[in-house]
Structure prediction request, 1103 residues.
Amino acid sequence: MRELVCIVCPNGCTLSVDEQTLAVTGNKCRKGVDFAVAELTCPTRTICSTVKTVFPEAPVLPVRVSKEIPKDKIFDVMAEINKVILDKRLSRGETVIGNVLGLGADVIATSSVLVKKS
Amino acid sequence: MNLVKLNKKLNILYGGKVKAREEDGKRILEGELSDWSEIVAACTLASERYSTTHVVNDIKLTGTEIPRTRLPHVTDKTLEGRKPDVLIIGGGISGASIARELTRWNIDVLLVEKESDLACHASGRNDGEVHPGIDLGKGSLKQRYVIRGNAMYDRVCKELDVPFKRNGQYVGFTKGFLKPLVYLYALHRKSIGVKDTVILSKKELFRREPNLNPNFKFALFNPSAGCVSPYNLTIAYAENAVKNGAQVSLLTAVTGMDVEDGKILAVHTNRGTIYPKVVVNAAGCFAEEVAAMAKDRFYSVHPRRGTNSILDKKAGFLVKGIAGIKGAKGTKNTKGGGILNTVHENLLVGPDAIETFERENFATEKESIEKVFAKQKQTAPTLSERDIITYFTGVRSPTFEEDFVIERGRKTRNLVHCAGIQSPGLTTAPAVAEDVAKLCVDILSEKGAVAVNDRFDPIRKGIPHLAAMPMKEREEYIRKNPDYGVIVCRCEEVSKGEILDALKSPICVPTVDGIKRRVRPGMGRCQGGFCQPLVTKIIAEFLRKELSEVRKNEENSVIVYSETKGRKGE
Amino acid sequence: MKSYDVVVIGGGPAGLASALAAERHGAETLIIERENALGGILKQCIHDGFGLVRFKEKLSGPEYAERFTEELEGKKIDVKLLSFVTEIRKNGKFYLSVVSREGIEEIEAKAVVLATGCRERTAKQVSIHGTRPAGVFTAGTAQRYVNIEGFMPTKRCVILGSGDIGLIMARRITLEGGVVLGVYEAKSTPSGLTRNIHQCLYDYDIPLHLSSTVTRVFGEGRLEGVEVAKVDEKMRPLPGTEERIDCDALILSVGLIPENELAEKLSVSSDPRSKGATCDGQMMTDVGGVFTCGNATHVNDLVDYVSESGEIAGKNAALYDGKNAKYAFVRPDDNLLYVVPQRLNLSADNSETVIYFRSKEVRGKSVVTVKADGKTVLQKKYPFLRPPEMERIKADFSSFPLKENSVVEITVEEG
Prediction:
């Protein structure tokens, strides 16, 4: 049995997972099971960061990955994010890096601060 | 105590490790001790209070290294070959006020200060009280200057546009039977110049200050006592000096002097060699070092640290004036710190007094705060540590005689000492500055007449303080400069316009602390949590530099490092 | 003089939700924001996890905020940015003095909503001594440098306090190439959410030291190190356990305090337990027409609840009729850190009263009981209660005859 803390929501359930059968207990909801199974097979995480821009009013723009990426690729994806120098005024949800490192996730802008009128 | 008797005593106390001798009108103590407090005790034993025969401490402290003077990192030649009439060493309240008084004459005045701003040591690290002089006995320079200095404050602060308030000092007594004695004491003080003293009945005291210790039976009240922001006054003095032609060179430390036949020929600094006609030693804790360089060391300074706490304005109602207690446990004979309502309506609580050999150790200690609060809760019982927003430590620079040294050099004749300055040095500064300036002019006059500066303007215009203005006036200011309408520091309500004014002021110190001391962003209860990034950015934009080049104060006090992204060379 | 039904002070999540709710209930509404953009602190909270309760999505702070700011468009809500309320007084209606680049404007309002958020406790407030170098930051300040300005405030740091912002910053600094040597927490249990301990610290091998604190700071210009020490159960440092750690920054996440300076100007009473203004179930303070919400009322753990309280405040500010209120009083027991609201307005609809509370200690299985004059209104069971996690319950008092000075007791028992 392995003990995990579910990070999907603020409840932070303490989960017990059977490493052979992948049976999960301690979860309050279905998401806990998915989290526990993923954690034992292929743990994934969301990452949030910023990219450098050429615009003085917002020298960096917040971004995140559009879906979770394997945990062991976090710093590889960060390296890609760090290479960007954004010269387009993207809106929230628009893609900054498509299919980053072929992981099937995009790096997307999470703010429209660059297109705000005021 | 005569020398024979003294040496006998020293022998008993320190087992022959310390000896005293007299030479050229000074008492020199020599030997070795491993405990600084013993050195202070030995020198104090050898000294006579307020005497002009000073104790010079040559007792070596063994087993502990006395930290070396911190020097600026910069070296250049910006001052090389400068030949000022007067060189002032030290940019504290003494040096700055002397510089301003000297510009009343048509002479070249240069002030050097080793720190990145004025008033970085004792002058910026005290409670800012303008003392009434009630606690000073006859015969000292301190006493002589305190009455004169205090009386000058209204005019000086008006000329220099510095907030000043006479909110009066209350010293409470818990023992009613002392009243006749205190009455006699006040009467005696009246005869030596302290004429404002009133003895307040309990009823009157509590009508004025309802939150003081209910056990107070009566109080000594001195309405002439007041307060000022000590660094603002120092900066204002220096700015007015600059306006009238003086030069202020920051980050400039004196590293040596060439002295021949009782005359300073050259003064070496990290920014070049200066050839002054007259030198003023206003170097605070380093006055003894400067005196030694000038071959005119006839006194010693024993640093004494003190810590003050600053309380939230919310607690300001507790004490409206300046309050202290006498006769309580552990208070000895001095008021020994108190509670002071500042010009910005915060409360200042402290200071304590601890002997130290570290002249530049401004670290705070928990025990100091605890002790000061334990004591001052006897002054105002509802005082609470919870209202502390920050605290700071300063180091005083007394001589063993506990009096000022204000005189021409005894051996080196083109030198004027303004040393041993401690409380009430802020109060006395305006008066002392006049006399020191006069001493300098006397020396210069030996080589020919010194003309008056016809264009001397005593008026300095400070930075407007928008939050304190009536609505109409504030509106007017904002209309002329919309930046006055952008609030950067929410706690102290400081606008961007005021910050830019500080950056454009005559002595520009473009650091976060430099701005904080001039216009107060970050002085409030959030301590810069919200505004520090904004202030840093305004400074960077003003200097046309990167955020990572802005400093908190001194040269290596960077606030942020490289950019998070697109780092060069990585 | 411009006149509004509702003036909302603060354009963060509480203020935005409040203004939208006020407008929905027919009020002419103004938001006054001191920064140059709406969104409040969410602008710099670029991490995800916002909106799970409200939108059933994991949004980043800017995404969450922009959902609200975009909703403002086309609504009858005025917004004044870079505007600062210097004075506020009540004389029948409310009169505000607002300073901005345009000068000083006097604004009249029938009701005001204080959505002023909270501030961070500082190093001096947790009695850290030593020198005063550059490199001591509150977590929020460090967050602003990293996420808004794009500069690193540290290369190697120690974090004091395990509050959520501190944990989030530990991860942010690590992701951006800095080193977090450890997170020190004087309490014996973490202050932040459990999932943040896991996803921000353990995922990145950042050690968490409980019952340990930072006692001293070293360095003259820039911070050069800190002294850490173990503490006893009363959180006093244990002599002999001191250890120096070389680093270039100390980042503090040692608690948040509701901002109540404006509330004080209006003589609104505050609750020493929540540290914010006291209020009733409609988020109205004890000064008629003054409403409070979000982190200015009490420090919330989730923005979703900040928005919720903003909506309650905004709606009721719009509906405010100026009548004098009579109250029943809410009394939490000593096992609770605080409860909001502190009163119930007898003339208001109390059928869906939202009650927020936090437990004082970490507790196992617990039962929370709400009683009105001794009669049980509601009981709720919890597998555990932890101080970092705010709890929320909805109670229906409509069938309980509350009278003036009735007492609503809220108790926690084992079970």
